Amino acid sequence: VTINTDQLEGSSYAYLEGLKPILEDYINEYNWTKEEFEEEERIGCQFQIVFTSGSSDFTFSAETVFQVQRPIYNTTSKTTTVLLSDNTWQFNYPEGKSLIHDELQFEPLTGFVDFYAYLMLGYDFDTFSKLGGSDYFSKAQNILNLAQTTSAIGWSRNNNNRRNRNTLVSDLVSSSYSPLREAYYQYHRLGLDQFVTKPEEARNQIFQALKTIQDVKRRSTSNYLYDIFFDAKSREIAAVFDEAKTELRLEVYNVLRETDQGHLSEYERLQN
Asked: Cα–Cα distance between 214 and 145 in angstroms, integer?
């Protein structure tokens, strides 16, 4: 966890620096899953919080960025599975407040952290087995449903911004996006994880995953989940195919040119 309070005025908020170890303990000491993880298998997560405003009753607004990584088999490298930002977090945090994990009662500070913890787990498990993250996405949806019975900011279905928590988790649990989630498995487990031992086969699996994403995106009404995928993966995809055969590089470029126009500059070299 990193915390930035530069936008807050006055010295009364100095105690917020202490939120870093408190949040780290809250996230790391709770058993979010019954699965057993070895030390080297643990999910790498960066949680960046930028406070944008604070009031005299200790109600704060913050913007956050989450980056989640997992190890790549047969290497010492890691891959970013998801890169997400959220600009509408509002919560109350007076000095000395305890953070308590409660699945039956919504609280804006811990509920937000719980929601994204389950999303991170869902994304991670999706990379190891087909639709493996479903239980965790459902837990995130339960938190969303609980939040919507309150007046907490950022959880409403009626948010004018389509890129909100409701759209995010609703899409993730929708069968319409199951092919995209299955592509996460193919990309990571069948592609990246065997890249060192079988590079040609790995590239082919990743290419097939990209073609699946291209196909399902054509039928989708929302680009949100696709943008999340390519925000995390664009540079990596370009690197994976950098030394591929010319014919494959051009095929990949043509798929990406349609599917991920936001990162075309990353893919230009695949044409050479």
From this structure: 31
- The pLDDT, as a whole number, for residue 158 is 73
Which candidate, 166, 21, 9, 168, places its Cα nearest to that of 82?
A: 168
Question: Which residues does residue 79 pair with via DSSP β-bridges, in sequence order?
Answer: 70
What are the helix and strand counts (H, E) for the chain?
Answer: 9, 4
DSSP for 74-105 reads TSS-EEEEEEEEEEEEEEE--TTPPP---SSS
Neighbouring-strand partners of residue 46: 67
Whole-number Å distance between alpha carbons of 104 and 106? 7
Q: Is 119 in contact with 43 (CB distance < 8 Å)?
A: no
Report the run of H or E that residue 66 belongs to, with start and end.
strand 59-71
Q: What is the spatial distance between Cα 220 and Cα 211, in angstroms, rounded to a whole number?
A: 14
Low-confidence residues in the chain, pLDDT < 70: 159-161
Res 153: pLDDT:
92
Quote the pLDDT of residue 160: 64
- For residues 166 and 160, give the distance between their C-alpha atoms in angstroms, rounded to a whole number: 11
Instruction: Judge contact between 254 and 220, C-beta under 8 A.
Output: no
For 98-108, what is each residue's pLDDT tens digit?
Answer: 999 999 999 99
> Mapping DSSP to helix (H, G, I), strand (E, B) and coil, where does residue 160 land?
coil
* Cα atoms in the 13 Å half-sphere on the side-chain side of 188: 28
Looking at the whole model, is its pTM more than 0.85? yes
Instruction: Please state, in angstroms and as integers, the Cα–Cα distance from residue 188 to each residue in 80, 84, 90, 206, 269, following that order.
Output: 10, 18, 34, 8, 23
